[in-house]
Amino acid sequence: MKQKITLKHIAKELNVSISTVSKALKNSEEISRDTKEKIQAFARLYNYKPNNIAISLKNKRTKNIGVVIPDIVHHFFTTVIRGIEQYANQKEYNVIVCLSDESFDKEVINMEMLANGSIDGFIMSLSSGTQRKNDYEHLQQVVEQGIPLVLFDRVTDQIACDKVVIDDQMGAYKAVKRLLSSGRKRVGLITTEDYLSVSYKRNLGYEKALAEFGVEYQDELVLKLPSMEVDEQRIADFLKNARPDAVLSVNEIFGITAMRLIRDQGRKVPNDISVIGFTDGLLSQYANPSLSAIRQHGEEMGREAAKMLIEKVEGLTDSESFVTKILEPTLIERDSTIN
Amino acid sequence: MKQKITLKHIAKELNVSISTVSKALKNSEEISRDTKEKIQAFARLYNYKPNNIAISLKNKRTKNIGVVIPDIVHHFFTTVIRGIEQYANQKEYNVIVCLSDESFDKEVINMEMLANGSIDGFIMSLSSGTQRKNDYEHLQQVVEQGIPLVLFDRVTDQIACDKVVIDDQMGAYKAVKRLLSSGRKRVGLITTEDYLSVSYKRNLGYEKALAEFGVEYQDELVLKLPSMEVDEQRIADFLKNARPDAVLSVNEIFGITAMRLIRDQGRKVPNDISVIGFTDGLLSQYANPSLSAIRQHGEEMGREAAKMLIEKVEGLTDSESFVTKILEPTLIERDSTIN
DNA sequence: TTGTAGGCGTTATCAA
DNA sequence: TTGATAACGCCTACAA
């Protein structure tokens, strides 16, 4: 077993001092050509690579980014991670992924672990537990310690930090406007309760579009589920009782489920009911009929978050001033809507 | 901004030595009750937490696991990560995720970065680039350096290390047997070329089941695509020309796509053609009709891999002997197959 | 041109 | 009971 070699080994082997080796490997002018060549050759031969941990300790910089997300088995978060990785890798950062599992406690524990030197900064999206509890003390701590933080998608304005979001209100607005423009009269909304920041904003967009078209808001056309769990019974009842002729769903699973239940109830998508869903993941693309969707641009969001974070980490950006980058959602028209 | 506090700060503040502080915080018997209480109170007040990096350097143990996978926007890998996280978190390990993007070069670069002290061990699934190139030098290096390695799903027998796989051959066998038992005569296979270890084994299972039922293997009933990209045209041609009455697909996207094309060609699933797909992700569940699938037990695979790795890392397991854990795939019956 | 020494934050050994 | 010292691996200011 070839043990990893250190400066010390090389120094002893070649009868020079550690600092000479260090300098030689950095091609320092101070060291004679002969010595450098000898040392570099030896290092190459034994495949010397500096120890990241030692360098981190010395530099107080780990080149690691901590990413804390609620769930990884979720297309949107997964695309965000991909975006983060893209940018981070190119800047030679590694990504440590932690899952909060939608739980406040896990979010806190994970962040505390990482905050003790393991990472240079955080990129995160709040767990539903945290948003429900409305307690951001752990984020505040991190910020006060001077650890850069970028929040994405599920954010809070109670913390001053950089943020990247899509304009959720605009997304919902676009969708509902599109539905009303195509002649739909009873546009339903399947969403979650308001504590989730994104749901709240999407609900606003829904209302705004209705208002703009002079359509009165009707409670019975809005189904607010307590969580992101699919509750088929409630969705089925909603469809039957409220009799919408169009539905906007706050995520694609609700949308797909609604489409199936609509068919079960003997109505047709898109002829009888149009459906649009947030998120635009694989399900929307491959559904039958394919689901028109609000695309959230996860990869771009991830790249943007990583960029903002790394700029803060490397001090390229004023550490006291924060920006919120708002990406514009796109409406992707597929087969679940009529013109 | 509250800077992170160190032993040194505490020592200076309380006029004791660093080592006294260190011991006091570990509740050492050596230190007097008074001193301990004073120091502990102070530490609590200033929320002292030891620096992970310093501890890593000292202990030569990072409590980080490196996970290298081909792609993260992929339900199966994502469930594996979740399984890894579950086990790792509970053992207080963090997970560093790197994406090889199906590229040999990226895989090598990522591993080299992490191997320089950032992690205690690797869990990985080979990129298609690596399997195509059939070059495992980088894995060999890691192993020779004494870094524990666990391979999952896409593995190679050219490297001696722990492995976790599902029995891919068995999975395909089960599926094809099921199709033949229900009276199907022309069972097609949509797969990728053999360089992908899992495809190869699934192809074997397909052949085995045919043989067992005395059905002759026919080239025209097997479509081997060059990569995991969906090539609709080739799939459509295949369906039209080979006229299978059942299809097994090596992943769910091929399966879903086939179902749609079948319908476009005026045939019905499952009445005219049964379809079974590997992977069992969201698409299979929510497809219409829902897709019968071979479940790969990603989460369990992840937990198992993490367990094996951490046991090696912590020396609970002989570092010279390796096991391959084979999980049994499950056939999930849904609406795309008849009885 | 090369080497010494100190420090990053922690722990462990040994001395006081 | 407390403290000094060395060590983990690396870097760098300064001395030789």
From TrEMBL, chains A, B:
PANTHER family: HTH-TYPE TRANSCRIPTIONAL REGULATOR GALS, LACI-RELATED TRANSCRIPTIONAL REPRESSOR
Domain HTH lacI-type per the UniProt entry, residue ranges: 5-59
Alphabetical list of CDD domains matching this protein: HTH_LacI, PBP1_LacI_sugar_binding-like
Protein name: LacI family transcriptional regulator
Record's keyword annotation contains Metal-binding: no
Signal sequence interval, chain numbering: none
Swiss-Prot/TrEMBL keywords: DNA-binding, Transcription, Transcription regulation
A Pfam family recorded for this sequence: Peripla_BP_1
Cited InterPro entries: HTH_LacI, Lambda_DNA-bd_dom_sf, Peripla_BP/Lac1_sug-bd_dom, Peripla_BP_I
Single GO MF annotation: transcription cis-regulatory region binding
PROSITE patterns: HTH_LACI_2
Keyword Transcription: yes
